[in-house]
Hints:
With 87 residues, the chain is of the alpha+beta class. The chain has one domain: 2-Layer Sandwich (GMP Synthetase, Chain A, domain 3). Helices cover 63% and strands 15% of the residues. The chain has helices spanning 4-17, 21-33, 35-40, 58-79; strands at residues 42-47, 50-54, 85-86. It has a 3-stranded mixed beta sheet. β1 (42-47) and β2 form a beta hairpin. α2 (21-33) packs across α4 (58-79). The longest helix has 22 residues, at 58-79.
Amino acid sequence: MQSARQDLQSLTARVLQGAAPEEAVPLAWPLVCGSVVAQRAQAISFEGGVLCVRVPDRGWQSQLEAFSKQYVHKLSKLTGMAITTIR
């Protein structure tokens, strides 16, 4: 039996995979990075495999860069889309 978390992740993935990429990836951002990070690092657009994220300062930019590979992997897995970079 799957856990509630697995069920929720599966449902979310199905919903996001039915959405247009330019909508699905920014919508999935808070689910991947968490609400605390999403409040400071806002996904603003997705085009051509690049997710653009707005951060308030260089400190947050450094943090985002440090975790970007993990976020790219999780976003790709959740949305089923090819995400190459977070900028």
